[in-house]
Amino acid sequence: MDFSAPTLWWLVAGLLIVAELLSGTFYLLMIALGAGAGAVAAHAGVSTTVQIATAAIVASGATALWHLKRARQPRSAPAASNVDVNLDIGQTVHVNAWRDDGTAQVSYRGASWQVRHAGSAAPETGVHRIVAVHGNRLDVERVQATAA
């Protein structure tokens, strides 16, 4: 079977897209875009050297632009303290007594949970807000009472 140059470029682009779907890295799509540019160059009838150079320039440029775009975006909070990942973040619990090591037991969602004080001040009893979840331990901070 004898494939033409554009067909080979399109096959490479397709394989890169499949690899991206399997791995989840968006950078492979940028490289597939370069392979597509190589296919377009092959359709235009330019030499193999120009096809490879076109594919390399487009793939490198697209990858660099994607990297710059990602670098400028703010990083999301770690999953343990990200409200978009864990809906318990921001909920409140009532702490009746603290142990000397800064932990306590509370009832939350019908179960007993261990909590750890996450604030900088000394732990106090009362209502606390969940700021992070680590397995079966909740990190909490004191909810400040508002003046009426």
Strand content: 15-25%
Q: How many DSSP helices?
A: 3
Average of per-residue pLDDT values: 88
The H/E string reads HHHEEEEE
Report the end-to-end length measured between terminal Cα atoms: 83 Å
Radius of gyration: 27 Å
What's the multimeric state?
single chain
The gross shape turns out to be rod-shaped
Largest sheet: 5 strands, mixed
- How many independent structural domains? 2
Helix content: 40-55%
Broad structural category: alpha+beta
Outline the low-pLDDT stretches: none
Number of strands: 5
- Biggest sheet, strands in spatial order? 1-4-5-3-2
Question: Which short descriptors sum up this protein?
Answer:
22% strand, alpha+beta, 148 residues, single chain, 5-stranded mixed beta sheet, OB fold (Dihydrolipoamide Acetyltransferase, E2P), 5 strands
Word description of this protein:
The structure is a single chain. The protein is built from three helices and five strands; from the N terminus they run αααβββββ. The protein is an alpha+beta fold and 148 residues long. The longest helix is centred in the middle third of the chain and has 25 residues, at 48-72. Strands 1-4-5-3-2 form a five-stranded mixed beta sheet, with no helix packed on it. It has two domains: 5-72, no CATH class; 79-142, OB fold (Dihydrolipoamide Acetyltransferase, E2P) (Beta Barrel). Helix 1 runs antiparallel to helix 2 (27-43) and helix 2 runs antiparallel to helix 3 (48-72). Helix content is 41%, strand content 22%.
